């Protein structure tokens, strides 16, 4: 459970949410501390300035009118404002009692009490451990004169701390609720994300065990999981197709091998047991054995050639090749079959056949494979044509037939190994031809119309492949 992708994704997501949440809370609390301190200081400054101005005005009026000195209603003011009031300095009127807690100037520490400038100070109240933040306002009867004292409006620093601690607690509670909700949501989302992966893992185990009829879930969307599912489904289909083709190939090759081996064994047994004793009969039997041996050799050679080509362990030679002679050779190999089956067999080539640098034997093998395919599918009395052309720095060899053509859905499959549309072929001729053409730096093109024959074209560069 702890090591599953679902758990790790959820833990990673929640960890990221928690880190960003804590960072955001820290920034919010810090900002809140700055704002509340500024607001508190501004409030203290306003109160100190207002109270000092009110007292100075009252004192000046009392002095002019000869009335008793004004007094601060300290208790009521403190109750109304929620702040603490102090006084530093001398009394304006002899013997006056302000009703305020008086402080020594040293109680404010190193605070510089200037003539007309308000000062923000932090100090510890004598006889008390509380830390206070205060605004000290000079008390002047007339602006610009020497102040006779300072009115100090203060509030405990702990009040500011309580405000942001309350905010912090609420933010942490909101973060906890958010993380819980996000965890539940992402746990559900991670299940939807990882379930297809788990299904693919189960399907992978079945495919590894050789079962290709696995059920692969359909994943909607265009994300990486759906892409992986589609690719995996395609891979399984190709593996299943490959397995089917392999079985078909083994059956086909077994049949192809068994037929000549049966013929060879029959003639050898006939000679050994004396059933065939006449010299002419023995010679005929040996001819059959030789022909069937050649057939076996060609089949084994085709399989080895295809394996080497697909493993890129196939080498080609570079030599000057007269394509006219190659075509003559390939054409001549099928003239007897064409005569026997009454096929209109023609060779059409340019007057000056090009000489290119390539592997002549492999070019002959490609053309022979294409002609073999054409003769396999062309009915008796049909038409096959071999053409040679050259244009735009390349040469081309066309093999045209009057067979049934290739349906559009099979034009790419016929070049896959072991795919044969009849029971006699092994499905190796065209794949080998295509791989050889690519190894020679060329390609094979196919044009076909069902019912009207096909044209296979071998295209080779006039210059040697780099």
What does this structure look like?
With 466 residues, the protein is of the alpha+beta class. It folds into three domains: 159 residues; 87 residues, Signal transduction histidine kinase, dimerisation/phosphotransfer (DHp) domain (Helix Hairpins, Orthogonal Bundle), CATH 1.10.287.130; 143 residues, Heat Shock Protein 90. Helices cover 53% and strands 16% of the residues. The protein contains nine helices and twelve strands. The strands form three sheets. It has a five-stranded mixed beta sheet with strand order 2-1-5-4-3. It has a five-stranded mixed beta sheet with strand order 7-9-10-12-11. A two-stranded antiparallel ribbon has the order 6-8. A hairpin with a 6-residue loop joins strand 3 and strand 4. Helix 1 packs antiparallel against helix 3, helix 5 crosses helix 9 and helix 6 packs parallel to helix 8. The longest helix has 61 residues. The protein is rod-shaped and about 165 Å long. It starts with a helix and ends in a 5-residue tail after the last strand.
